[in-house]
Specification:
The protein is of the alpha+beta class. The chain contains seven helices and 32 strands.
């Protein structure tokens, strides 16, 4: 006989089991922390894995509220979730105010528990900090080149704490930064952040703005900044010597212009053919006028030398410009020419380096392709293999054809001498060759071209036919690595010696 337990009893058993396992000891809170601007909404959700008996929240500036899906919104707070039966205790603060900033607590009651469960979260109501303050150490003002600039940025009374970034004009500064310090004020939950920077000054820093930028969600456009103009003093900077200027025309006025970088403004002096010309004056001839220096801004100045009418001597003269200020001096050598400016003359170092790098990459690519083709790698491997097979077959056919074609072609060079002498005389000549012949045979034995016989059956037949004509044929063997002269003959013939016969200008035969 089976007994069915009531549903309420089963529920209590399940709750007791989960309690013993520790599954009811933790309240899930989403989110743990939230940042909201005044008048914005803020939503939180507290959850347990079992149905809830009640849901209560404690909010700064509002107090304690009992919430469920059946209750209407009160004090700007309404229930959020799928109901207490789902174990969810959520709420929405419809319009956040400064008073709501701080810790919020939710309290969850369970039917089988004598103590309620609670979860905590933190709501930060953003407050914009004060404008950032930039302080520069007054160890030297103005600064000089290679001095170490030390500056500090302070962003006060923000909630939450603000972020600090450093810039030189629009260039981010990432080096030389200290770890930021944060000072908290508990009374209003406000925070002040301080960060320092150290940087060695360069000539290029002159005229730029050192910026401290604060980022905060409550600020307009989320950022605020303060800046200081840097005044860096340095001597006239060197340039590549000589400085070349093109495009001048003979008998026409011309102006030599040189841009100088310096701070403070330099004084200039021109030297033309050992004559010094101060700015604002002319040379002894009255043809050459040195103008006053023009300020182009941010440490750049323009020095002009006007020539009334360019002569050939002017194009052969070296002009010296001396610029000096309280920090130092610098000489510049200038040459002028009537030739047009070469193409790419004004590319600068960066452009020239870029061209050289591109050319080197192209050369490396070309050499790689050539080596790959020679070694038959990559996409050349298949074609190289096929080409080797075809070449091998072609060479075999050509070699066979050459064997057959060499015999008739050599008939003009190797011939048996026809003489009117008696057979006995011929026999003596054959058996007793001359000393000159012996010497010739010894000297001609090691040659690069080798005489060899053809197939044995073909050779016997050919020799017999050629002997009737008094001619002995031989063949060049281009394959044999140990060359030696061999004369075609039949087995029953005596040794015959080949002689080269040619006719001299008088029509007489001559033996070699």
């Amino acid at each position: 006989m089976s007994v069915s337990l009531p549903e309420k009893t089963l529920y209590r058993v399940l709750i007791l089991y989960l309690s013993l396992k520790g599954c009811l000891g933790f309240v899930d809170v989403i989110p743990k922390e939230a940042i909201a601007l005044p008048n914005e909404n803020a939503t939180f959700l507290c959850t347990l894995r079992v149905p809830l008996q009640y849901c209560r929240v404690l909010i700064p500036g509002i107090g304690s509220l009992n919430l469920n899906s059946k209750l209407q919104s009160r004090k700007g707070v309404s229930y959020y979730g799928n109901g207490l039966d789902s174990g969810q205790c959520g709420f929405i603060i419809n319009r956040v105010t400064e008073e709501n900033n701080g810790k919020i607590t939710c309290f969850l009651g369970i039917e089988t528990e004598d103590q309620e469960k609670e979860g905590g979260m933190h709501l930060t109501v953003a407050r914009a900090p004060k404008a950032p303050e930039l302080e520069v150490a007054r160890n030297a003002d103005p600064h000089r080149i290679n001095d170490v600039l030390q500056a500090s940025c302070v962003v006060r009374d923000g909630r939450p704490v603000a972020n600090i970034s450093w810039y030189l004009d629009d260039e981010p500064l990432l080096d030389g930064l200290s770890m930021p310090s944060v000072f908290d004020y508990v009374k209003e939950d406000l925070h002040t952040k301080v960060q320092n920077i150290s940087r060695q000054l360069h000539a290029s820093d002159h005229g730029k703005h050192l910026k401290c930028v604060a980022t905060h969600p409550a600020m307009q456009q989320n950022t605020a900044s303060t800046m200081k103009l840097l005044n860096v003093q340095y001597p006239p900077l060197p340039q590549g010597n000589p400085i070349e200027r093109f495009g001048f025309e003979l008998s026409q006025p011309g102006t030599i212009q040189v841009e100088i970088e310096a701070n403070p403004q330099p004084m200039v002096e021109w030297t033309v053919r050992e004559q010094k010309i101060q700015a604002g004056s002319v040379d002894a001839t009255g043809r050459i006028h040195a103008e006053e220096v023009q300020d182009m801004g941010r440490g750049k100045y323009l020095a002009n030398l006007r020539i009334a009418a360019i002569t050939k001597q002017d194009t052969e003269t070296q002009y010296i410009l001396t610029a000096m200020n309280s920090i130092g001096a610098q000489d510049y050598s200038i040459l002028i020419s009537t030739s047009p400016e070469p193409e790419g003359f004004d590319l600068g170092v960066g452009g020239i380096v870029g061209i050289v790098v591109v050319l080197m990459l192209v050369m490396v690519l070309v050499f790689t392709v050539i080596i790959a083709r020679i070694k038959g790698k990559w996409c050349f491997s298949a074609s190289s293999s096929n080409r080797n097979v075809e070449n091998s077959d072609t060479e075999s056919v050509q070699h066979t054809d050459s064997k057959r074609s060499l015999v008739p072609k050599l008939s003009d060079f190797f011939a048996k001498k026809k003489e009117a002498a008696s057979p006995s005389h011929q026999s003596d000549d054959l058996n007793a060759p001359s000393e000159e012949g012996e010497s010739d045979k010894k000297n001609s034995a090691p040659t690069d071209e080798t005489l060899t016989t053809t197939d044995k059956n073909d050779s016997n037949k050919d020799v017999k036919e050629h002997n009737r004509e008094g001619v002995v044929y031989a063949e060049l063997d281009l394959v044999n690595v140990n060359p030696k002269p061999v004369v075609l003959k039949t087995d029953d013939e005596k040794t015959e010696y080949a002689e080269i016969v040619y006719t001299n200008e008088e029509g007489k035969e001559k033996n070699v």
